Amino acid sequence: MQQNDQVEFFQSSINFTSFIHSYAQFLLNYFEGYPPPEASKKELIQSENQIIQSLVLIEKLHMQQFLYFSILQIHFFPNEFTNLSPDAEIKEIFQKLNNLIDQHPFLIETNRSIAKKTVAQILNYYHGSTDDETIRIIFTLSPLPPPWLANHSQIKQIKEV
Q: How far apart are CA 117 and CA 130, in angstroms?
């Protein structure tokens, strides 16, 4: 792999880390400021569902970055890299988020379960904190959040005669 490719890889890793940090901080602020003033139950359920979908997407970004790094390490840089360097600040944010999810009054219990499993999976990516530790990811299948449909796109059931 050429020098330009290495620079591009490291720049994408920096961008990834920056985005994850900002978005994780946003989620942390949401849970710390809960409940939003003057929010209806319908709005709270909708925001809860969107938070769950966001957590799942963040986990998928972690998985993509981890797999991308693993492929590069195995095929192109077997002796040059050790681990993805875990970001202690992001790990701390997700640990706080995990604690806040425990205390959060979810309106739909399935959302609590998905949030807990998703944050636990994200924290697996930050397990290795020294060069002696390897990041070990265990992929688990868990229920996906229900799909989002706009009010005008609701599927109407047709009665058969």
A: 25
> For tokens 């938070």, what's the residue?
51
Rounded-to-integer distance, Cα 97 and Cα 27, Å: 8
Per-residue tens of pLDDT for the chain, all 161 residues:
567 777 787 788 788 888 888 988 999 888 888 777 788 889 889 989 999 999 999 999 888 888 877 777 777 666 655 445 557 888 899 999 999 999 988 999 999 999 999 999 998 887 654 444 555 555 555 566 666 666 665 555 555 54
Nearest Cα residue to 103 out of 91, 115, 90: 115
How many angstroms separate the CA atoms of 51 and 111, rounded?
9
Tell me the whole-structure pTM to 2 decimals. Answer: 0.69
The full set of domain ranges for the chain reads: 3-142
Length of the chain: 161
Q: Are 108 and 48 in contact (CB under 8 A)?
A: yes
Q: Omega into 78 within 30° of 0, i.e. cis?
A: no
